Amino acid sequence: MPDKTARIAMVTLDCAEVKPSADFWSALLGWEVAASTDDYAMLTGPDGSPALGLGRTDDHQPPSWPDSGRKQFHLDLAVDDIDAMADRAVELGATLADPQPGETWKVLIDPAGHPFCLTDAANWG
């Protein structure tokens, strides 16, 4: 009998330019760029993890921060050292979001304008 559940195979983010987004996320996550064209890139991580896709859209509009209703979702990344990873993300082209909503995580904006959070890996088990 076939399994009647689904699994997330990939999360895809829209962007205006694929290469800068693929370079940023590849460096930040330490994932390989498995495929890349001017219109699309796919990054692969550890076995069993969903892939990250980056797709060019001509009318890409970055989500707003703080959320004004255009943002649909964001990535939460578990890290060992939030401040060190925030510094690394900024070196790679991210910006620190303003305002910051809390003390136990940091919100950054990737080069394509997507907000993402860095949070303490110890709290994720």
Automatic annotation (TrEMBL):
Residues 47-69 are annotated as: Disordered. SUPFAM superfamilies: Glyoxalase/Bleomycin resistance protein/Dihydroxybiphenyl dioxygenase. Coiled coil: none annotated. Pfam families: Glyoxalase_6 (PF18029). Residues 7-125 form the VOC domain. It comes from the Bacteria. This is VOC family protein.
